[in-house]
Specification:
This protein is of the alpha/beta class. 55% of the residues lie in helices and 9% in strands. Helix 2 (41-61) packs antiparallel against helix 12 and helix 13 crosses helix 23 (692-704). The longest helix is centred in the middle third of the chain and has 93 residues, at 321-413.
C-alpha cells in the first residue's frame, strides 16, 4: 500500500530543482471549492448564523403590516366626448400612445395631490404610523414643508399601483398596521382619483370652450379683413373673370391671337413656296400652283405649234414658208408665256410680302399679350393667396362656431372611462413580515456572504495547505503526505498482564509522536512508510543513502518526520543511522529518551568516540541514533568542517540509510554546509504553517548550494483538503482509530 503519497514517475537518480512541471491551475475546480469550504467552514457557519440572526431580528422587530387591494379597469379606448373629442383629447393627452397614457394614469394615482386628498379625507394625521411624524410638533391644521414632505413620502411608501400584465386592470395596494385603515385608504385612493379625473375632464372641456369663445372674435375680424383685401386687390389689378373656371379677358385674347398667328404663319409658308417656284420660271410648276391662269392655255397652244412645226420640218424642211410662219407664232407664244410668268412671279411676291407682314404684326401682338398675361399671372397668384386665406379664415370661423356649440354640451355629458372592479376589503392576514421568506433569505444571504468572506480570507492566506499547493509553488514532486494526527494519551488503568506491562514499558521508551513505532497500524505511520517507499523507488539501481530533511523554519516537524522515517527504514531490517545535525536546538534525544552528554558535537570535536552512538530500541537493534550532543559555540563551522565530510563518508560505507535531521534553512545557514554532500534533500512543509514565499526561498538557497532536492514532504495535512482523498467519514482504511498528529503533544498536554 502506497498511502497518500505521490511517488516520482519512474526511476531517477534525483530531481534537480526547477525541473518538475508546474501545477498551477488558473480555474477554480469543484475540488478546490470544497477545500476552501472545509478550510473556512467556521467563517461560513458564522455568516449563516449572522444571516439567520438578522432574519429573526427582522421578524421580531417588524410591525405586522396588512395590505388591502382595490382593482379598477381603465379603458383608454372608450370615447367620452361628442364631436369635439379630437381637440379635447389632443389637449389633454398630448399625443401619447396607450401604454404611456396608462402609465400617466398610474402616476396620477400616486401624485401628491391625490395623496393629500386621501390624507385629508381620512384624517390620517391622527392615525398610526403617520401620527408619529407629529410627535415633536403636533398637527395644528397647517403643515410645514418638512412635515408635508415626510407625510407624503411615508404615504407613498405604503402605496403600490401596478398594472396586471397584458390587461388594462390596475391594482391599488396599500399597507398599514391597521387592516381597516388599509382597506379604507385603498378605496379612498380610487375615489380621489375618480373625482380628480372627472373634475380634470370637465375643467379641460370648459377651458377649451372659453378658449374658443375668445378666439371667435379674433377669427371673425380676420375673415372680414381677408375678404376686404381680396376685393380691393381684384379691383386694383382689374382681375375680371369670365367663367367659374377662372378664365379672364386677357387669357381669351391671348388664345385668339395665338390661333391667328398660327394661321398667318401657315399662309406665309404656302405663299413663300409659290413665290420660290415662280422664281424657277418653270411654267409647268407654275401651272400646278396656279391652274386657272392664262399660262396653262398658252402652254397648250405652244405645244400644238411645236408639234405642227416639227411635222412640217420633217416633211418640207426648215425653209418651208409654213414652217417659218409657225416659228414666228412660237416666238410670239413664248413671249406671252414669259410675260405671264413675270406677272405671276410679281403677284406671288406681293402675296408673300403681305403674308410676312401679317405674321410679323400678329407676332408683335402675341408678344405684347404675353407680357400682359405674365403680369396678370403674378397678380393672379397673389389673388389666389388672398382668396385661399379668406376661404380658410371663413372655414375656421364656421368650424369654431360649431365646436363652441358642441363644447357647451360636452362639458355636461363628459363621462368617465374608469370602472371599479373590486372594492378593497379588510385583509384577514398580515403580509409583513414574511417569516419563511425572511429566514430563507437570511440563510442564503449569510451563506453567500460567508462563502465570499471565506474566499476573501483565502486570497489573503499565503500558507501551503495541500500537496497541490506545494507542487505548484516549488515545482517539485510531493513524495509523501503525512496526515494530521493526535497523540494518544498513555494514562489509564494500569496493565494487569505481563504482556501489557511489557508493552507499556516498550512504549515509554520513545516519545508518543513516533507513530511508526508506537502505532504502526495507524494511517500516519502508513504515511511515513509511503515516504520511505518513495525514496526507495526514486532510484532503484542506486538507492540514496545520505538523506537530509530540512524546512523553512522551526516547529514544522523535521525531527518527528526524520525519526519516523528512520524507524520505517529500520523496520525493513536495514542498517539505519539517525543523526541530529541541528546543533542548536535538536530534539531527537528527547524523542528517544536519550542522554545528550555525547553526540555529534562531541564526535566532531574529538571529545568522544563510538559511545556517542546509541541503540535506543531493543526490538530495532539495526536502528542507531546519534543525538546532537552539548550545544556548540560554533555549529556552522563544525558542520562545514573536514571532520564532518569524513564522517559522512564513513556513515555512507557503514550504513544502508543515514537520515539527517537538520536545522531550518531560513533562520541559519548550517544546513547549507552539508547539503552538497548528501545524496538527497527533502524539504518538509507543514500544512497551514509554511508560507509560499518561504518555500520558494528555501528552494532557491538549496539550488545555490548545489543541493540535490528529491522533492517535498507535506506534514500535518487535513486529508479532506487533498483532492484525491475520497473517504467521507474517517481517515483510516482498516487501521486503528487511535492515531493523531502532534509534535510531542498529548491529549492531556493540550
Amino acid at each position: 500500500m502506497q498511502g497518500w503519497a505521490v511517488p516520482p514517475q519512474g526511476p531517477q537518480q534525483g530531481v534537480t530543482i526547477g525541473t518538475a512541471p508546474a501545477a498551477e491551475r488558473s480555474v477554480l475546480t469543484p475540488a478546490d471549492f470544497r477545500k476552501v469550504l472545509i478550510k473556512r467552514k467556521w467563517i461560513i457557519i458564522l455568516g449563516i448564523v449572522i444571516g439567520v440572526a438578522y432574519a429573526i431580528f427582522y421578524i421580531v422587530t417588524t410591525v405586522p403590516q396588512y395590505e388591502a387591494i382595490a382593482r379598477l379597469h381603465i379603458d383608454l379606448s372608450r370615447s367620452t366626448n361628442i364631436g369635439i373629442e379630437d381637440l379635447i383629447e389632443q389637449k389633454l393627452s398630448g399625443g401619447q400612445d396607450a401604454g404611456e397614457k396608462l402609465q400617466t394614469e398610474l402616476r396620477i394615482m400616486q401624485s401628491d395631490s391625490v395623496t393629500m386628498e386621501v390624507i385629508n379625507r381620512l384624517d390620517l394625521f391622527h392615525k398610526a404610523p403617520y401620527s408619529e411624524l407629529f410627535a415633536k410638533q403636533p398637527y395644528s391644521g397647517q403643515l410645514s414643508p418638512a412635515q408635508r414632505y415626510a407625510l407624503i413620502h411615508a404615504f407613498q411608501g405604503a402605496t403600490k399601483v401596478i398594472v396586471l400584465p397584458n390587461t388594462e386592470v390596475v391594482e391599488v395596494h396599500f399597507q398599514n398596521r391597521d387592516p381597516s385603515v388599509a382597506a379604507n385608504t385603498a378605496n379612498a385612493i380610487v375615489d380621489a382619483y375618480l373625482d380628480r379625473d372627472l373634475r380634470s375632464r370637465y375643467e379641460g372641456t370648459t377651458r377649451v370652450s372659453n378658449w374658443l369663445t375668445r378666439q371667435l372674435s379674433a377669427v371673425k375680424k380676420q375673415v372680414e379683413d381677408a375678404q376686404k383685401s381680396l376685393t380691393d386687390y381684384q379691383r386694383q389689378n382689374n382681375l375680371l373673370t369670365l367663367d367659374g373656371q377662372g378664365g379672364s379677358l386677357l387669357t381669351d385674347s391671348l388664345r385668339t391671337v395665338n390661333q391667328q398667328l398660327a394661321e398667318a404663319e401657315a399662309d406665309r409658308i404656302v405663299k413663300e413656296a409659290r413665290y420660290k417656284m415662280a422664281q424657277t420660271r418653270n411654267p409647268d410648276l407654275l401651272i400646278s400652283v396656279a391652274p386657272g391662269t392664262v399660262l396653262s392655255g398658252l402652254r397648250g397652244q405652244q405645244a400644238d405649234l411645236m408639234v405642227q412645226a416639227a411635222q412640217l420640218k420633217s416633211k418640207f424642211g426648215p425653209d418651208y414658208p409654213k414652217v417659218r410662219e409657225l416659228d414666228k407664232q412660237l416666238a410670239s407664244v413664248q413671249a406671252d408665256i414669259d410675260a405671264e410668268i413675270n406677272d405671276l412671279t410679281k403677284r406671288f411676291a406681293e402675296e408673300y410680302n403681305a403674308a410676312v407682314k401679317t405674321e410679323s404684326l400678329l407676332q408683335d401682338r402675341l408678344n405684347k399679350t404675353k407680357q400682359d398675361a405674365y403680369k396678370e399671372n403674378e397678380s393672379a397668384a397673389q389673388f389666389d393667396i388672398l382668396k385661399h386665406g379668406a376661404e380658410s379664415a371663413s372655414e375656421l370661423y364656421d368650424s369654431l362656431q360649431m365646436k363652441l356649440k358642441e363644447a357647451g354640451i360636452t362639458a355636461g355629458l363628459n363621462s368617465n372611462n374608469v370602472d371599479i372592479i373590486d372594492q378593497a376589503s379588510i385583509p384577514p392576514f398580515p403580509v409583513l413580515p414574511k417569516k419563511q421568506s425572511a429566514l430563507i433569505f437570511g440563510f442564503l444571504g449569510g451563506l453567500i456572504g460567508g462563502i465570499a468572506l471565506a474566499f476573501f480570507f483565502e486570497s489573503l492566506d499565503d500558507t501551503i495547505r495541500t500537496s497541490d499547493d506545494a507542487e505548484a509553488i516549488s515545482q517539485l514532486p510531493t513524495l509523501a503526505v503525512i496526515p494530521h494526527f493526535v497523540i494518544t494519551s498513555r494514562k489509564g488503568a494500569p496493565p494487569t498482564t505481563p504482556t501489557a506491562k511489557a508493552e507499556q514499558q516498550r512504549l515509554l521508551k520513545v516519545s508518543p509522536d513516533l507513530v511508526s513505532y508506537v502505532d504502526p497500524q495507524s494511517i500516519a505511520a502508513e504515511g511515513f512508510r509511503t515516504f520511505r517507499s518513495s525514496i526507495l523507488l526514486s532510484a532503484v539501481d542506486h538507492e540514496p543513502k545520505l538523506l537530509l530533511i530540512t524546512s523553512s523554519f522551526a516547529a514544522e516537524g523535521k525531527s518527528t518526520c526524520a525519526a519516523n522515517l528512520a524507524i520505517s527504514f529500520a523496520q525493513r531490517s536495514a542498517r539505519v543511522l539517525l543523526v541530529d545535525s541541528d546543533l542548536r536546538k535538536g530534539t531527537l534525544h528527547m524523542k528517544f529518551r536519550l542522554s545528550n552528554r555525547a553526540g555529534l558535537t562531541t564526535l566532531l570535536s574529538r571529545e568522544s568516540g563510538n559511545d556517542a552512538y546509541e541503540k535506543p530500541l531493543p526490538d530495532l537493534p539495526n536502528l542507531t541514533v546519534l543525538s546532537r550532543g552539548p550545544i556548540a559555540p560554533n555549529p556552522g563551522e563544525m558542520l562545514a568542517s573536514r571532520a564532518m565530510e569524513e564522517m559522512l563518508a564513513q556513515w555512507r560505507s557503514e550504513y544502508e540509510h543515514v537520515v539527517l535531521d537538520s536545522s531550518p534553512i531560513l533562520p541559519v545557514a548550517d544546513t547549507l554546509s552539508i547539503a552538497p554532500h548528501v545524496d538527497a534533500t527533502f524539504i518538509l512543509v507543514r500544512a497551514g504553517i509554511t508560507r509560499k514565499h518561504a518555500l520558494i526561498r528555501v528552494r532557491e538557497q538549496l539550488r545555490r548550494a548545489s543541493g540535490r532536492v528529491l522533492g517535498t514532504v507535506i506534514n500535518d495535512v487535513d486529508l479532506r483538503m487533498e483532492n484525491y482523498y475520497t473517504y467521507s467519514r474517517r481517515y483510516d482504511y482498516g487501521y486503528k482509530s487511535n492515531y493523531g498528529a502532534g509534535y510531542g503533544v498529548t491529549d492531556d498536554e493540550k
